[in-house]
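Quick question: what would this complex look like in 3D?
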Amino acid sequence: MTDATALIWFRRDLRVADQPTFLAAGRGARALALFVLDPRLMGPAGEARQWFLYGCLRALDQSLNGRLLVVEGDPAQVVPRIAREAGARAVHVAADFGPYGRARDEAVERALNEQGGELIRTGSPYAVAPGRVRTADGGRYRVFTPFRRAWADHGWRPPAATDAGFLDWIDPAALTVEALPIPSRTPVTANLPEPGEAAARRRWEVFRREHLEDYADGRDRPDRPGTSRLSAYLKFGCVHPRTLLAGMAGSSGSGAHSFRGELAWRDFYADVLDQRPDSAHRNYDRSFDALVTDSGPDADRLFAAWQEGRTGFPVVDAGMRQLLAEGWMHNRVRMITASFLVKDLHLPWWRGARHFMRSLVDGDLASNQHGWQWVAGSGTDAAPYFRVFNPVLQGERFDPDGDYVRTYVPELAGIAGKAVHQPWKLPGGPPRGYPAPVVDHRHERAVALERYEPVRAAR
Ligand code: FAD
């Protein structure tokens, strides 16, 4: 093995610009570019996220002039074998802080060490990596606002000046490893964003030019294109948050302030998951273990109605159908649909979270599980458990003319204005083909509050 050859193992950093692993390998180094399709990660990803990932891999491969080696298997076996064959002692990655990613990397590291190699972690998918932002006495933050302040004080590195020509890419055809063709674009029913680094850059530029200034107000309106829709690109690292933060440096407007805040939430949830890996699947606040949730055939029927967007509550149904149609849902509507599942249907948050993770093109364990727990009341900074979203009022407030609902629920397309939020009040009842509400919100709200009593007592 020679020190001169590096293996760049791409994971959630599918780009060539602002790529700290390239800096770590050293300008001009001979390098092999690798991506491993790991069945453990591909399993829970639905077809939308897989389609997007394959598109990002194809775009990366094009940037590297066809020199991306894609293989399938358990990284703990595959990566050391390929490193051996390529004559690479150093395997460079951006650090992964998720529970699975961390354990996987430790296994890869052990195997590399045994053959005299090493795993070198440089950078992470975050502006500030989990564990770096600390309280004055070295502790970790459990509340967002002070975290955000300390996060901004900590600051982040400027983007790394890298591009595809930074390293001397080895042709993987020279190796005997069995390369996989990048899986072809399996047809998906969802209308998904264009994958890849160049598309991410374009989207960022459009957002910055047209929507950033009004983002503080615009971000809460699902009927308007007021958010960046960069989440899937951030998930796969087609663009790094550092690049976005650098692009806003010097912007003191409320839009930039608010957008920086959302990137801070992303880092905060990754930090919290790093502190408490168990919170991916259990209540962060364990007093919520005392909450009784429903199961059985009736619960399953209600869950199916929620998944399909057939609850009879228009803004909930529009959100769930947007998820099916685009592999994405507006943040405000994620909160409304999640609240409905937990507080109106009395189902456990993790059941909804699993459906989101499978369906979202931006599905991310930290943001998703903690977004859900925020709504359920069991997370950090959680919305108070006694705040129960009223789906009609939420619809009327954030989709005041009903345009969002009409876009995704064609059965309601003929109802003008905000009357679309209460179709059961129309003289003839809801239009043909659209269901009556599956529950009585006032009643379920009272049930939810009653069920929280043992949680309160357990605190
Ligand atoms: P913008 O408003 O343009 O925000 C810019 C970026 O900031 C986003 O791309 C995202 O990376 C980050 N961000 C924004 N809001 C949040 C937030 N509340 N928490 C963490 N990061 C945030 N986001 C995911 O990326 N993946 C998920 O799986 C996910 N699941 C969620 C589930 C629920 C129940 C809730 C309430 C929120 C969830 N979010 C998740 C957060 C948020 O809804 C999305 O990040 C956002 O809607 C993505 O759209 P955007 O890129 O246009 O966001």
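Answer marked as accepted. Residues 219, 227-231, 234-235, 262-263, 265-266, 269, 331, 334-335, 338, 356, 360, 362-364, 367-368, 371-372, 375 surround flavin-adenine dinucleotide (CB under 6 Å).
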